[in-house]
């Protein structure tokens, strides 16, 4: 199926009535639970992300509360509660996780990819004289 046609099908009634299984993917744009829990599984999120049809008012309340929480410990604890609920009830099954590997010459120093997207800031990289 052509990608644009697939996306239209996934948004439509046919998928929610007849769909059983599809492959999806997601990369974090920023390192925060909000980029997963609120963006993917909150019932008010974009249905294009993962249109599984799963909905939980309790989950929605938890992730919205966590997103607004200023206290880091309380925020983390609230997201953990949401994660437990998601693990128990969600119809989605993670099959694999992406991992980025890079070959780096020994004379390249400070090549430290960031955890999100694996981007390495070039301003941190140094080249040693011993080549």
Give the SSE map.
Layout: H1 3-11, H2 13-18, H3 34-41, H4 57-68, H5 72-89, E1 108-109, E2 126-127
Antiparallel strand pairs: 1-2
Describe the fold and architecture:
- This protein is mainly alpha-helical and 131 residues long.
- The chain has two domains: 25-95; 99-131, no CATH class.
- Helices cover 40% and strands 3% of the residues.
- The protein is built from five helices and two strands.
- The protein has helices spanning 3-11, 13-18, 34-41, 57-68, 72-89, and strands at 108-109, 126-127.
- Strands 1-2 form a two-stranded antiparallel sheet.
- α3 runs antiparallel to α4 and α4 (57-68) runs antiparallel to α5.
- The longest helix has 18 residues, at 72-89.
- The protein is flat.
- It starts with a helix and ends with a strand.
- The model has no long low-confidence stretch (mean pLDDT 83).
Approximately what portion of the residues adopt beta-strand conformation? under 5%
Q: What series of H and E elements makes up the topology?
A: HHHHHEE
Q: Which structural class matches the secondary elements?
A: mainly alpha
Tell me about the largest β-sheet: 2 strands, antiparallel
Count of alpha and pi helical runs = 5
Q: In whole angstroms, how far apart are the ends?
A: 50 Å
Percentage of residues in helical conformation: 40-55%
Specify Rg, calculated over alpha carbons. 20 Å
Strand order of the largest sheet: 1-2
Task: Count all strands and give the number.
Answer: 2
Report the average pLDDT across residues: 83
Low-confidence stretches: none
Count of spatially separate domains: 2
* Global shape: flat
